[in-house]
What does this fold into?
Amino acid sequence: MIQAVTVRVARPTDSAAVERILEASYPALMSHAYAPAVLEEVLPLIMTANPQLLGSGTFYLAEAGDEPVGCGGWSSERPGTPDIEPGLAHLRHFGTAQTWVGRGVGRMIYSRCECAARAAGVRRFECYASLGGEGFYSALGFERIREVDIDFGRGLGFPSVLIERRI
Ligand SMILES: CC(C)(COP(=O)(O)OP(=O)(O)OC[C@H]1O[C@@H](n2cnc3c(N)ncnc32)[C@H](O)[C@@H]1OP(=O)(O)O)[C@@H](O)C(=O)NCCC(=O)NCCS
It folds into this structure.
């Protein structure tokens, strides 16, 4: 039987579930786009659940029964800063467990984000997409602004793509 997937708002207590998803997603799905040395440095940072997002009410968890299968959300703040621009929000921390990719989980979470963000007055999304993630966002209607190196400190630049979509 195919297990139905549901999406709900994540809670601060979902930290372990989010990390389980990210660990089942990022190492496998990002290995085609990045050198092993880059992933070795960056994965521990980006596979850690973000407590601010978990408590925001705008971060979501997709579940198949008890199994966490996907996550993602949005924030008014630009990632890594307190900066807020009226009408603009940022997609954050999307991931689908490898065994669940290509089954609409990411799109379900995105739809939830778009619906809530529109209701909150957001008119444009931006996202710092990983190199392998850009195709997913293109399918959702995002367009490339420019390539960027995300600065994780320690002189480490993570090649990414800044993308946008009007909503
Ligand atoms: C990107 C990611 C979240 C997509 O999740 P998913 O659950 O497989 O996405 P969906 O099944 O909902 O796909 C939605 C659409 O995007 C398309 N798509 C998904 N991944 C794609 C890819 N890598 N390249 C091109 N198109 C892609 C699907 O074909 C689908 O199109 P359709 O609805 O028009 O048929 C998932 O692959 C992932 O976790 N990747 C690794 C982490 C990552 O890069 N996250 C983004 C961080 S910025």
Observations:
- DSSP finds six helices and seven strands in the chain.
- The pocket of coenzyme A is lined by residues 25-26, 29-30, 70, 94-96, 101-107, 129-130, 132-133, 135-136, 139 (CB under 6 Å).
- The chain has a mean pLDDT of 95.
- The first helix runs from residue 15 to 23.
